[in-house]
Design goal:
The complex is a heterodimer of chains A (110) and B (146).
Chain A: E1 5-10, E2 16-23, E3 26-33, H1 34-38, H2 54-62, E4 70-74, E5 77-82, H3 85-94, E6 105-108
Antiparallel strand pairs in A: 1-2, 2-3, 4-5, 4-6
Chain B: E1 14-17, E2 30-36, E3 39-45, E4 52-53, H1 56-62, E5 68-74, E6 77-90, E7 94-95, E8 98-107, H2 115-119, E9 122-123, E10 134-137, E11 142-145
Classes of the chains: A alpha+beta (110), B mainly beta (146).
């Protein structure tokens, strides 16, 4: 009868879990990185490599014009600007935006 | 490419590009994209202050009430404020984002604080920068963290 044994160990550097699968026809190892398995796919916190995010690109080009003000950005587009954060939040809520938001950047000008 | 120690273990698990705000008074600062208390925003990474700071406006926005009363010496000035443990995520352009629970001070007497410190969120040492590994590539404006 074919038998399969699973063994779970930590990698030498502690970064990942090594899952060993021992079978009659061979042994296999999977190197599982915990955060990669559990990571929530959130496009605001994982970006493509080697390019500025649209919001960051907007800030580089425009934030100097909004010193002392608050701005709200989504995908590199200026949604609202206000002299203070409470006014900015009110304007966003009037648009139906649910706050706080990990999709819309709220920041001061530079 | 992310950074590794000589034994192959990870030094940095993520990195993000920061802009140095060319032409503005903040041109020498490291201004990172972060999520604080569920809100995507920016914060200044600052090894010169002992604790992280959340501006009073931003604290009101997040609905933070009274916290633990503390006094911190910020750039030679004793500042009173409320400490809150707040979820913070370093946004990653490459690799994985890094989430922490960070003690942040909301300055109570912010009039006495250097205005920039009271106006923007700052990532200071205690419980934040001193609890992670980080490196900065100024030439490519990249902040590595892990």
């Amino acid at each position: 009868m074919e038998q399969i044994t699973l063994q779970q160990t930590k990698s030498a550097n502690g970064d990942s879990i090594v899952l060993s699968i021992l079978t009659d026809i061979g042994n296999y190892q999977l190197n599982l990185v915990r955060d990669a398995v559990n990571a929530t796919p959130d496009r605001t916190v994982i970006r493509s490599e080697n390019r500025l995010s649209p919001n960051r690109e907007w800030l580089v080009n425009n934030a100097g014009q909004y010193t002392g003000k608050w701005v709200a950005l989504r995908d590199g587009v200026l949604l609202e600007t206000a002299d203070n954060l409470s006014a900015l939040a009110e304007a966003l809520r009037n648009r139906g935006v649910k706050l706080p938001s990990s999709q819309i950047m709220i920041t001061t000008g530079f | 490419m992310l950074l590794r120690f000589p034994d192959g273990s990870s030094f940095a698990t993520g990195s993000s590009q920061y802009n140095n705000a060319p032409g503005t008074e903040l041109s020498s600062r490291i201004i990172l994209d972060v999520v604080i208390g569920g809100q995507l925003t920016t914060a200044v990474a600052d090894t010169g202050i002992p604790c992280s700071l959340c501006s009073p406006d931003f604290a009101d926005y997040l609905g933070l009430g009274a916290g633990q009363k503390e006094t911190a010496n910020l750039l030679g000035t004793d500042v009173k404020g409320d400490i809150h443990d707040i979820d913070l995520t370093f946004v990653a352009d490459a690799g994985r984002p890094l989430g922490l629970v960070v003690p942040m001070m909301v300055p109570a007497d912010f009039q006495s604080v250097i205005p920039e410190l009271a106006f923007r969120s700052h990532l200071g040492m205690e419980g934040c920068l001193n609890s992670i590994t980080f490196a900065v590539d100024f030439a490519h404006q990249t902040f590595y963290f892990g």
